[in-house]
């Protein structure tokens, strides 16, 4: 059985520090799991919704740009065909 000095040495020595450290870490873990993460989960939902809207607008803009690019390529193709016809007439 431990006497008073032996018990105090265990409580205030390395073993006591280890137990206190583990209790503090467990308390931090519980705080994180029960309070911090649920609060951030709600905030993240708002951020995700905003990002989703931004991505949708970027995709819409990209689709519009792609359609304009296709139209310009068709215009270039038409002009190239006209140039080829003119060259054929000129060479013939």
Major sheet attributes: none
Stretches with pLDDT under 50, minimum 5 residues:
none
Count of helical stretches: 2
Helix content: over 70%
Structural class: mainly alpha
Residues in β-strands, percent: under 5%
Number of strands: 0
Over all CA atoms, what is the radius of gyration? 37 Å
SSE order, as H and E?
A: HH
Tell me the number of structural domains: 1
Spatial shape: rod-shaped
End-to-end CA span: 118 Å
Mean pLDDT reading: 88
How does this model look, in words?
It is built from 2 helices and no strands. It has helices at 4-12, 14-91. The chain is rod-shaped and about 120 Å long. The longest helix has 78 residues, at 14-91. It has 92 residues and is mainly alpha-helical.
Annotation keywords:
92 residues; mainly alpha; 2 helices; 95% helix
Write the layout of secondary structure elements.
Blueprint lengths: L3 H9 L1 H78 L1
Helix pairs in contact: 1-2
Offer a concise description of the structure.
With 92 residues, the protein is mainly alpha-helical. It has one domain (4-91).
């Amino acid at each position: 059985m431990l006497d008073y000095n032996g018990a105090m040495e265990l409580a205030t020595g390395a073993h006591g520090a280890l137990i206190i450290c583990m209790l503090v870490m467990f308390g931090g873990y519980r705080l994180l799991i029960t309070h911090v993460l649920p609060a951030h989960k709600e905030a993240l939902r708002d951020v995700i919704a905003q990002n989703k809207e931004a991505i949708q607008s970027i995709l819409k803009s990209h689709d519009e740009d792609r359609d304009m690019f296709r139209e310009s390529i068709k215009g270039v193709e038409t002009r190239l065909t006209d140039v080829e016809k003119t060259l054929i007439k000129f060479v013939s």
